[in-house]
Amino acid sequence: MEKQRLDKIIASTGRWSRREAKELIRQGRVLVDGVPARSAEEKAEPESSEISVNGEALRYRRYTWVMLNKPAGYLSATEDGRGRTVLDLLPQDLRRQGLFPVGRLDKDTEGLLLLTNEGGLAHDLLSPRRHVDKVYYARVSGRLTEVDCAAFDAGLRLPDGLVCLPAGLEILSAGEESEAHVTLREGKFHQVKRMLAHLGKPVLYLERVRMGPLALDGALPRGAFRFLTENELEELRRFDNPTKNIKSSPKTQ
Q: What are phi and psi of 191, to 5 degrees?
């Protein structure tokens, strides 16, 4: 791997900005192969050099993966002239790492959204041939019934011609307003809302609670984010390709 500037390597962990990294280096708190770093411009090989900050070994991450608990009112885009994007919820040093949303949530839909700068795995997770399950909590106007569940299970053809793959509808409560979990194996434009509206049960609230093997962290406040754990990343890679040797895959955050 090519050598990189030391401040860039330190900032890639997401724990410090490049400005903070420069200050740490200036204070002599960064060692490279046991020797105090001389300047932020100094270059090192990220994966083979032994770099420590404040006496703690630095774990370089080639890619960054973030779980965001998306609030309503934000667009799932990297930039958009129409309003705020989910990147506005991240600190500046993360925004500079080229993160992008893995798939989309409608502006008024909340919940689990992954962001990364690892294009290959993100593309695989979004590929139609992968059929990655996405689970949503929905609150709708009207009483959901087993007839609705059967319609989802059979696959719906909407009035505009859209043919939806068979999907799951699990009723959590039924009344004037009903609650349900909806499981899709595809992600077409406004699909959950369109399917339920077609059955006469318009969506009042929608939240994504799972994507593939990852569930939304219940301890993560709305609008907050955290890095994926090593175990979660292993689950994603194993889900993407069960035969892949996880230990040989690039280190990731």
A: -65, -45
